[in-house]
Amino acid sequence: MRYPLIEELRSGQFLFPAYLAQVKARFAKDEPSILAFLPEDDRFTRLQEDAEKLLLSYPDVVKRPFLFGTLLGVKDIFHAGGFTTQAGSRLPADVLQGQEAESVKRLKEAVIPLSPSLDHVGFFASDLDTAIAAARVLFDHWDEPTLPLRKPRLGIPEGPYLQNASVDNLSHFQDVHKLLENAGYEVHAVQLMSDFAEVRARHDVIMSAEAAYGHADWFANYASLYSPKFTELIQRGKKITNPQLQSALSVREDFRAEIRRAFLDHNIDLWICPSAIDAAPKGLDSTGDPVMNLPWTQAGLPTLNLPVGKNQVGLPLGLQIVANWYKDESLLFWSRDLEKVLSTL
Predict the structure, then answer these.
(1) How far apart are CA 275 and CA 316, in angstroms?
(2) Tens of pLDDT along 229-257?
(3) Is the pTM of this model over 0.90?
(4) CATH number of the domain at 147-195+253-342, please?
(5) Domain ranges within the chain, ordered by starting residue
(6) Degrees (nearest 5) of the Cα angle 316, 282, 225?
Protein backbone atom coordinates (compact mmCIF):
# COMPACT_ATOMS: atom_id res chain seq x y z
CA MET A 1 0.00 0.00 0.00
CA ARG A 2 1.27 3.46 -0.91
CA TYR A 3 0.89 6.70 1.03
CA PRO A 4 2.01 9.33 -1.51
CA LEU A 5 2.41 12.28 0.89
CA ILE A 6 4.41 10.25 3.43
CA GLU A 7 6.60 8.72 0.72
CA GLU A 8 7.26 12.08 -0.98
CA LEU A 9 8.23 13.77 2.29
CA ARG A 10 10.50 10.92 3.31
CA SER A 11 12.21 10.71 -0.08
CA GLY A 12 12.59 14.48 -0.49
CA GLN A 13 10.39 14.63 -3.60
CA PHE A 14 8.06 16.96 -1.72
CA LEU A 15 10.31 19.54 -0.09
CA PHE A 16 9.49 20.79 3.37
CA PRO A 17 9.20 24.50 2.36
CA ALA A 18 6.56 23.64 -0.24
CA TYR A 19 4.76 21.31 2.18
CA LEU A 20 4.67 23.94 4.92
CA ALA A 21 3.52 26.61 2.47
CA GLN A 22 0.62 24.36 1.48
CA VAL A 23 -0.30 23.69 5.13
CA LYS A 24 0.04 27.38 6.00
CA ALA A 25 -2.38 28.35 3.23
CA ARG A 26 -4.95 25.82 4.44
CA PHE A 27 -4.42 26.94 8.04
CA ALA A 28 -5.05 30.55 7.09
CA LYS A 29 -8.20 29.57 5.22
CA ASP A 30 -9.82 27.18 7.73
CA GLU A 31 -8.48 27.88 11.23
CA PRO A 32 -10.29 31.21 11.78
CA SER A 33 -13.64 29.41 11.54
CA ILE A 34 -12.61 26.20 13.32
CA LEU A 35 -10.36 27.54 16.14
CA ALA A 36 -8.81 24.11 16.74
CA PHE A 37 -5.29 25.31 17.63
CA LEU A 38 -3.84 27.01 20.68
CA PRO A 39 -2.54 30.54 19.99
CA GLU A 40 1.14 30.65 19.01
CA ASP A 41 3.26 33.45 17.61
CA ASP A 42 5.35 32.60 14.55
CA ARG A 43 3.96 29.07 14.37
CA PHE A 44 5.22 28.39 10.87
CA THR A 45 8.62 29.91 11.55
CA ARG A 46 8.98 27.36 14.34
CA LEU A 47 7.84 24.55 12.05
CA GLN A 48 10.34 25.61 9.39
CA GLU A 49 13.15 25.57 11.96
CA ASP A 50 12.02 22.14 13.19
CA ALA A 51 11.97 20.88 9.61
CA GLU A 52 15.56 22.03 9.05
CA LYS A 53 16.69 20.28 12.25
CA LEU A 54 14.88 17.12 11.16
CA LEU A 55 16.70 17.08 7.82
CA LEU A 56 20.04 17.45 9.61
CA SER A 57 19.15 14.58 11.94
CA TYR A 58 18.23 12.21 9.09
CA PRO A 59 20.40 12.99 6.05
CA ASP A 60 20.18 9.36 4.87
CA VAL A 61 16.82 8.86 3.14
CA VAL A 62 16.88 5.11 3.79
CA LYS A 63 17.12 5.59 7.56
CA ARG A 64 14.28 8.08 7.86
CA PRO A 65 11.34 6.89 10.01
CA PHE A 66 7.98 6.05 8.44
CA LEU A 67 6.22 9.34 9.27
CA PHE A 68 9.26 11.51 8.59
CA GLY A 69 8.16 15.14 8.29
CA THR A 70 4.44 14.40 8.55
CA LEU A 71 2.60 16.93 10.71
CA LEU A 72 0.63 15.49 13.61
CA GLY A 73 -2.15 17.16 15.60
CA VAL A 74 -2.62 16.31 19.28
CA LYS A 75 -6.03 16.76 20.95
CA ASP A 76 -5.73 19.15 23.88
CA ILE A 77 -6.82 17.26 27.03
CA PHE A 78 -4.20 18.52 29.43
CA HIS A 79 -4.15 19.07 33.17
CA ALA A 80 -4.25 22.84 33.51
CA GLY A 81 -4.66 24.83 36.70
CA GLY A 82 -5.80 21.85 38.78
CA PHE A 83 -8.90 20.95 36.81
CA THR A 84 -9.91 19.17 33.64
CA THR A 85 -10.45 21.37 30.61
CA GLN A 86 -13.20 20.87 28.04
CA ALA A 87 -12.41 21.46 24.36
CA GLY A 88 -9.16 23.29 25.01
CA SER A 89 -6.99 24.73 27.77
CA ARG A 90 -4.68 27.67 28.28
CA LEU A 91 -1.61 25.44 28.25
CA PRO A 92 1.15 27.39 26.42
CA ALA A 93 2.04 25.92 23.04
CA ASP A 94 5.76 25.93 23.83
CA VAL A 95 5.21 23.25 26.49
CA LEU A 96 5.15 20.73 23.64
CA GLN A 97 8.37 21.84 22.02
CA GLY A 98 11.61 19.95 22.47
CA GLN A 99 12.54 16.32 22.08
CA GLU A 100 9.76 13.88 21.14
CA ALA A 101 10.36 11.66 24.18
CA GLU A 102 10.00 14.60 26.54
CA SER A 103 6.77 15.67 24.85
CA VAL A 104 5.31 12.17 25.14
CA LYS A 105 6.32 12.01 28.80
CA ARG A 106 4.63 15.31 29.53
CA LEU A 107 1.49 14.24 27.71
CA LYS A 108 1.21 11.04 29.73
CA GLU A 109 1.81 12.84 33.00
CA ALA A 110 -0.57 15.67 32.19
CA VAL A 111 -3.72 13.79 31.17
CA ILE A 112 -6.34 13.38 33.88
CA PRO A 113 -8.76 10.57 32.99
CA LEU A 114 -12.45 11.29 33.32
CA SER A 115 -13.32 7.62 33.76
CA PRO A 116 -10.48 5.07 33.40
CA SER A 117 -12.97 2.29 32.62
CA LEU A 118 -14.60 4.25 29.80
CA ASP A 119 -11.84 6.50 28.39
CA HIS A 120 -10.39 5.37 25.07
CA VAL A 121 -7.63 6.73 22.88
CA GLY A 122 -8.74 8.01 19.50
CA PHE A 123 -7.39 10.10 16.63
CA PHE A 124 -8.58 12.12 13.65
CA ALA A 125 -7.46 11.64 10.04
CA SER A 126 -8.48 13.14 6.71
CA ASP A 127 -8.99 9.72 5.09
CA LEU A 128 -8.68 6.00 5.78
CA ASP A 129 -5.24 5.59 4.20
CA THR A 130 -3.89 8.24 6.57
CA ALA A 131 -5.69 6.63 9.51
CA ILE A 132 -4.15 3.24 8.71
CA ALA A 133 -0.68 4.77 8.39
CA ALA A 134 -1.10 6.44 11.79
CA ALA A 135 -2.52 3.29 13.40
CA ARG A 136 0.48 1.24 12.27
CA VAL A 137 2.64 3.59 14.33
CA LEU A 138 0.30 4.07 17.30
CA PHE A 139 -0.77 0.45 17.93
CA ASP A 140 1.56 -1.59 20.11
CA HIS A 141 0.58 -4.92 18.54
CA TRP A 142 -0.56 -4.09 15.03
CA ASP A 143 -1.77 -7.21 13.17
CA GLU A 144 -1.89 -6.49 9.43
CA PRO A 145 -4.92 -8.18 7.79
CA THR A 146 -4.39 -10.49 4.84
CA LEU A 147 -5.52 -8.70 1.69
CA PRO A 148 -7.80 -8.63 -0.18
CA LEU A 149 -10.58 -8.70 2.41
CA ARG A 150 -14.09 -9.88 1.51
CA LYS A 151 -16.92 -7.40 1.90
CA PRO A 152 -18.06 -7.27 5.53
CA ARG A 153 -21.60 -8.25 6.49
CA LEU A 154 -23.24 -5.18 8.04
CA GLY A 155 -25.72 -5.11 10.90
CA ILE A 156 -28.16 -2.39 12.01
CA PRO A 157 -28.83 -2.46 15.79
CA GLU A 158 -32.60 -2.03 15.76
CA GLY A 159 -34.42 -1.11 18.96
CA PRO A 160 -34.50 1.60 21.62
CA TYR A 161 -30.83 2.52 21.10
CA LEU A 162 -31.31 3.44 17.44
CA GLN A 163 -34.46 5.41 18.22
CA ASN A 164 -32.36 8.03 20.01
CA ALA A 165 -31.50 9.43 16.59
CA SER A 166 -33.73 12.19 15.25
CA VAL A 167 -36.39 11.51 12.61
CA ASP A 168 -34.38 13.40 9.98
CA ASN A 169 -31.19 11.56 10.84
CA LEU A 170 -32.91 8.17 10.70
CA SER A 171 -34.31 9.10 7.30
CA HIS A 172 -30.81 9.94 6.09
CA PHE A 173 -29.53 6.71 7.64
CA GLN A 174 -32.05 4.81 5.51
CA ASP A 175 -30.56 6.48 2.43
CA VAL A 176 -27.10 5.34 3.56
CA HIS A 177 -28.49 1.81 4.06
CA LYS A 178 -29.86 1.72 0.50
CA LEU A 179 -26.62 3.11 -0.94
CA LEU A 180 -24.59 0.38 0.74
CA GLU A 181 -26.95 -2.36 -0.46
CA ASN A 182 -26.75 -1.01 -4.01
CA ALA A 183 -22.94 -1.17 -3.71
CA GLY A 184 -23.15 -4.90 -2.98
CA TYR A 185 -23.12 -4.95 0.83
CA GLU A 186 -25.30 -7.34 2.82
CA VAL A 187 -27.13 -5.28 5.45
CA HIS A 188 -29.25 -6.98 8.12
CA ALA A 189 -31.39 -5.45 10.86
CA VAL A 190 -30.93 -7.14 14.24
CA GLN A 191 -32.82 -6.42 17.46
CA LEU A 192 -30.16 -5.36 19.93
CA MET A 193 -29.91 -3.67 23.34
CA SER A 194 -33.56 -3.96 24.33
CA ASP A 195 -32.34 -2.91 27.81
CA PHE A 196 -30.71 0.29 26.53
CA ALA A 197 -32.17 2.37 29.36
CA GLU A 198 -30.24 0.16 31.80
CA VAL A 199 -27.09 0.42 29.66
CA ARG A 200 -27.33 4.20 29.77
CA ALA A 201 -27.95 4.30 33.53
CA ARG A 202 -24.99 1.97 34.15
CA HIS A 203 -22.78 4.21 32.05
CA ASP A 204 -23.62 7.19 34.25
CA VAL A 205 -22.88 5.20 37.41
CA ILE A 206 -19.42 4.22 36.16
CA MET A 207 -18.53 7.63 34.75
CA SER A 208 -19.76 9.72 37.68
CA ALA A 209 -18.29 7.45 40.35
CA GLU A 210 -14.87 7.28 38.70
CA ALA A 211 -14.87 11.02 37.98
CA ALA A 212 -15.70 11.79 41.61
CA TYR A 213 -12.91 9.50 42.81
CA GLY A 214 -10.32 10.80 40.33
CA HIS A 215 -11.09 14.43 41.07
CA ALA A 216 -11.62 14.13 44.81
CA ASP A 217 -8.54 16.09 45.87
CA TRP A 218 -8.81 18.74 43.15
CA PHE A 219 -12.51 19.23 43.68
CA ALA A 220 -11.98 19.70 47.41
CA ASN A 221 -9.58 22.58 46.70
CA TYR A 222 -10.83 24.01 43.41
CA ALA A 223 -14.59 23.38 43.35
CA SER A 224 -15.27 26.95 42.26
CA LEU A 225 -13.25 26.40 39.09
CA TYR A 226 -15.35 23.45 37.90
CA SER A 227 -18.21 23.99 35.46
CA PRO A 228 -21.78 23.49 36.77
CA LYS A 229 -22.19 20.42 34.55
CA PHE A 230 -18.98 18.81 35.78
CA THR A 231 -19.83 19.71 39.38
CA GLU A 232 -23.18 17.95 39.01
CA LEU A 233 -21.40 14.86 37.62
CA ILE A 234 -19.03 14.74 40.61
CA GLN A 235 -21.82 15.28 43.12
CA ARG A 236 -23.75 12.36 41.61
CA GLY A 237 -20.64 10.21 41.70
CA LYS A 238 -19.97 10.93 45.38
CA LYS A 239 -23.29 9.29 46.25
CA ILE A 240 -22.34 6.01 44.57
CA THR A 241 -20.82 3.39 46.86
CA ASN A 242 -17.88 1.24 45.86
CA PRO A 243 -20.03 -1.94 45.83
CA GLN A 244 -22.43 -0.19 43.45
CA LEU A 245 -19.56 0.78 41.16
CA GLN A 246 -18.06 -2.71 41.21
CA SER A 247 -21.46 -4.19 40.40
CA ALA A 248 -21.84 -1.83 37.42
CA LEU A 249 -18.37 -2.74 36.17
CA SER A 250 -19.17 -6.45 36.48
CA VAL A 251 -22.41 -6.08 34.51
CA ARG A 252 -20.47 -4.03 31.94
CA GLU A 253 -18.38 -7.16 31.27
CA ASP A 254 -21.58 -9.14 30.73
CA PHE A 255 -22.81 -6.46 28.33
CA ARG A 256 -19.60 -6.66 26.30
CA ALA A 257 -19.95 -10.44 26.10
CA GLU A 258 -23.57 -10.03 24.94
CA ILE A 259 -22.55 -7.71 22.09
CA ARG A 260 -19.68 -10.01 21.10
CA ARG A 261 -22.08 -12.95 20.98
CA ALA A 262 -24.46 -10.92 18.80
CA PHE A 263 -21.68 -10.48 16.24
CA LEU A 264 -21.27 -14.26 16.06
CA ASP A 265 -24.91 -15.35 16.40
CA HIS A 266 -26.02 -13.09 13.53
CA ASN A 267 -22.87 -13.44 11.42
CA ILE A 268 -22.24 -9.68 11.59
CA ASP A 269 -18.81 -8.20 10.85
CA LEU A 270 -19.63 -4.53 11.46
CA TRP A 271 -22.51 -2.66 13.07
CA ILE A 272 -23.52 0.59 11.38
CA CYS A 273 -25.54 3.40 12.96
CA PRO A 274 -25.69 7.20 13.00
CA SER A 275 -22.66 8.87 14.61
CA ALA A 276 -24.88 11.21 16.63
CA ILE A 277 -28.54 11.91 17.23
CA ASP A 278 -28.48 14.57 14.52
CA ALA A 279 -26.07 16.70 12.49
CA ALA A 280 -23.09 18.25 14.25
CA PRO A 281 -24.25 21.27 16.29
CA LYS A 282 -23.35 24.68 14.91
CA GLY A 283 -20.58 26.54 16.75
CA LEU A 284 -17.99 25.47 19.31
CA ASP A 285 -20.07 25.44 22.49
CA SER A 286 -20.80 21.70 22.37
CA THR A 287 -19.94 18.57 20.44
CA GLY A 288 -23.49 17.31 20.91
CA ASP A 289 -25.16 14.43 22.74
CA PRO A 290 -22.80 11.39 22.91
CA VAL A 291 -25.58 8.83 23.39
CA MET A 292 -24.99 7.12 20.02
CA ASN A 293 -21.37 6.43 21.04
CA LEU A 294 -22.28 5.36 24.59
CA PRO A 295 -22.86 1.58 24.29
CA TRP A 296 -19.78 0.96 22.14
CA THR A 297 -17.66 3.03 24.54
CA GLN A 298 -19.00 1.04 27.47
CA ALA A 299 -18.27 -2.27 25.74
CA GLY A 300 -14.80 -1.08 24.69
CA LEU A 301 -15.33 -1.91 21.03
CA PRO A 302 -13.35 -0.25 18.21
CA THR A 303 -15.39 2.34 16.34
CA LEU A 304 -14.82 4.62 13.38
CA ASN A 305 -16.87 7.52 12.06
CA LEU A 306 -17.15 8.49 8.40
CA PRO A 307 -18.80 11.57 6.86
CA VAL A 308 -22.03 10.84 5.01
CA GLY A 309 -23.06 14.17 3.57
CA LYS A 310 -24.71 17.19 5.15
CA ASN A 311 -28.15 18.24 6.26
CA GLN A 312 -30.26 20.96 4.63
CA VAL A 313 -28.37 23.78 6.36
CA GLY A 314 -24.93 22.39 5.49
CA LEU A 315 -23.98 20.77 8.82
CA PRO A 316 -22.18 17.40 8.58
CA LEU A 317 -23.74 14.00 9.21
CA GLY A 318 -21.81 10.87 10.11
CA LEU A 319 -21.96 7.09 10.03
CA GLN A 320 -20.56 5.15 12.98
CA ILE A 321 -18.98 1.77 12.20
CA VAL A 322 -18.32 -0.73 14.99
CA ALA A 323 -16.21 -3.87 14.91
CA ASN A 324 -15.86 -6.75 17.36
CA TRP A 325 -13.44 -6.65 20.27
CA TYR A 326 -9.76 -6.32 19.22
CA LYS A 327 -10.72 -6.10 15.54
CA ASP A 328 -9.30 -2.59 15.06
CA GLU A 329 -7.22 -3.53 12.03
CA SER A 330 -10.14 -5.20 10.23
CA LEU A 331 -12.33 -2.19 11.00
CA LEU A 332 -9.84 0.20 9.39
CA PHE A 333 -9.25 -1.88 6.27
CA TRP A 334 -12.93 -2.73 5.74
CA SER A 335 -13.80 0.93 6.08
CA ARG A 336 -11.57 1.91 3.14
CA ASP A 337 -14.13 0.63 0.65
CA LEU A 338 -17.00 2.00 2.72
CA GLU A 339 -15.34 5.40 2.55
CA LYS A 340 -15.29 5.26 -1.25
CA VAL A 341 -18.95 4.28 -1.46
CA LEU A 342 -20.09 6.90 1.05
CA SER A 343 -18.08 9.69 -0.60
CA THR A 344 -20.79 9.86 -3.27
CA LEU A 345 -23.27 11.31 -0.75
Answers:
(1) 10
(2) 999 999 999 999 999 999 999 999 999 99
(3) no
(4) 3.90.1300.10
(5) 4-128, 147-195+253-342, 198-243
(6) 125
